[in-house]
Fold:
Amino acid sequence: MTHKRKTLFCAGGFLFCTVLFGTYMTRSRRPNAEPVITAAEIAPSLKDGDIICRMGDRFWSVHFRNLSPADKQFSHLGIVRVRDGNLSVIHAASWTERQDGVNEVPLEEFLQPALAVGIYRPNFIDGAVLSDAVLEYKGRLFDWNFDHNDESKLYCTELLHVILKRLAPEITLKTTHVTLLGKEIIPLDAVSRSEDFEEILVVAPRSSGRQIALAE
Structure:
């Protein structure tokens, strides 16, 4: 076996073991655990098309957070949709109670595993246009290959990437190389540290002593 094939085999094995153990850890969480951050705290600051980031309490959340080279606050994101007074989040998630892939969930459900939350507003497009466009991708499976050149399956930041490629091709989300995977991925700080997104609100972990911090 060549060195390259060995590397890919080891990476695939590590990813499989991470998912397998992470699934067990997720299923073993208390089903009625009280959320750390509630929808009532977040809702007043949300607008249609906002990007909502969270730091999850899942086994693999720390791994996804650490893929961001500059800002390691968050492990996952979704796109907010506001219609008729209802707040929902469309996101590409894996191993949830719903279908593995792109789903629309109530804000409360998205916040259930959140230990920290950030709201970022695109300053280059109308939010309603963004939240309407994301509907087309509902039902696509989660992209465990992390290949943002293949739109048939999507991971969380890749979902935003494919929408921007259509609606605002002048906006580019930065990538970072992950040696273990042998490819470029789009980290969470491609949004949180981008000048193309205005920071609206950050709710840090309660253990840090910080509460809600509204952007000036």
